[in-house]
Amino acid sequence: MNRPLILVSNDDGIDSKGIAALIEVAQKFGEVVVVAPASHQSGMSHAITMFTSLRLTEVNDFGATKAYMCSGTPVDCVKIALSKVLDRKPDLCISGVNHGSNASINVIYSGTMAAAMEAAIEGINSIGFSLLNFAANANMDTAKFVVEKIIAETLQKGISDTNLLNVNIPNVDIDQLKGFKICRQAKGNWREEFDQRTDPFKRDYYWLTGKFIYEDTGDDNDIWALDHNYVSIVPVSYNLTAKKSVQSLQKSWTLNSSTVV
Amino acid sequence: MNRPLILVSNDDGIDSKGIAALIEVAQKFGEVVVVAPASHQSGMSHAITMFTSLRLTEVNDFGATKAYMCSGTPVDCVKIALSKVLDRKPDLCISGVNHGSNASINVIYSGTMAAAMEAAIEGINSIGFSLLNFAANANMDTAKFVVEKIIAETLQKGISDTNLLNVNIPNVDIDQLKGFKICRQAKGNWREEFDQRTDPFKRDYYWLTGKFIYEDTGDDNDIWALDHNYVSIVPVSYNLTAKKSVQSLQKSWTLNSSTVV
């Protein structure tokens, strides 16, 4: 029997410390193939490259592990991996370790989670991992500890009722971890604060900045878990239908009939 | 009392025929402000611009309607509109009319839907409109008819249990429309078919192409509705938690406790 085939990607780029940590752990479980962006792709969400072509280049950065960098987005990486690089469907796709949180509404903007979601859409068990430390040289010891536990559990038990997990890891030492919380996405959003500047030709330009607004009061969400030094595990769906709303709109709206006018 | 303030954006760019149609209809209902991408942004999903700055330029393409083009993504457009352009929170955000379908899994890749979702995250009733015709010169008569009916219903009744709709419009004449279906996102995905070519320097490059695979058997989904000449209306959530899976994983996994080891 083949060892599990594990596809690894990320959004911080193939040179990041986070993906090296992920590869190191994944190698304990199976045959690892890496396809990751050549450049930083944070905030790219589920973008795909439609107006330029893509390059795919083999690199020799991870010993015997086959690894490629792709000129496109995280989702492009997964698509080209599944279509052109791998000779069979992987047993698992893991993405990250992202340098920075993808908890709460960040899941929507995240290239790390989009790479995992793309594999999930294709029917593969997939996990995005993020560490709450933006630094390029972040210590990955706790992340590696967590990744190993979660890969083991996933390969053994699967992911029931979905095939996609958003795992966020508090930026603390292993002995400060309180445990793991399987929970929901916290309610929150980003309050924009555009930094307006003037260029040497007197024209305005803007840098997108902002701060996260936590709008939740529950203790069953990912932000709460992370604030209390738990690893948060949020099962994620790519069926975006607001199910309750289907029924309530069918009752309240008149535009749900076979009469056009 | 102020007339409703309506923010308009899209992903095909401010020069597209689809956004002109949307603006024309929106003007019947309230004060319209347009902030749309300067260039084509299809497939950009919920991407935000983090590594370059943004430009915002007023344009005079829509008569007395205030309109701006932004150098960034659809989501950047909505963020800068809410933060720097509008002096109050809009009553409605509409995005499109997209040239091409955003039904089923396309909702994940769509810049049109991401613009609407960004406004919804900020608490604004929002609708993405898409016409099943990719042509730049697509006839917008049916789209305008549908947009008018749906804006009227939304302003009158709101959108219960969510604040975001994905509306897709079949590419038929008005008298061929069967009606409107409030329904769910169909199950389906894209099968990639990378077009591999060799450049003049003997290096490979790839164009991302693919075909849509319909994997659903129900008659209560958007693809079914569109195939039967109904307008599909899917209420959308940006809480991606797979709720059923939270409970099932809490039962089946051991990694949900206060013990780390």
Topology summary:
2 copies of one chain form a homodimer.
Chain A: E1 5-9, H1 17-26, E2 31-37, E3 56-59, E4 66-70, H2 74-85, E5 92-99, H3 106-109, H4 111-121, E6 126-131, H5 141-157, E7 164-169, E8 179-182, E9 188-192, E10 195-198, E11 204-207, E12 210-214, H6 222-227, E13 230-235, H7 243-252
Parallel strand pairs in A: 1-2, 1-5, 2-4, 5-6, 6-7, 8-13
Antiparallel strand pairs in A: 3-4, 7-13, 9-12, 10-11
Helix pairs in contact in A: 1-5, 2-4
Pair of chains with the largest interface and how many residues each contributes: A-B, 92 and 93 residues
Task: Provide the gyration radius of chain A in Å.
Answer: 20 Å
As an assembly, this protein is homodimer
Number of domains of chain A: 1
How many helices of chain A? The count is 7
Structural class of chain A: alpha/beta
Q: CATH homologous superfamily name of chain A?
A: Survival protein SurE-like phosphatase/nucleotidase
Say what the CATH topology of chain A is. Stationary-phase Survival Protein Sure Homolog, Chain: A
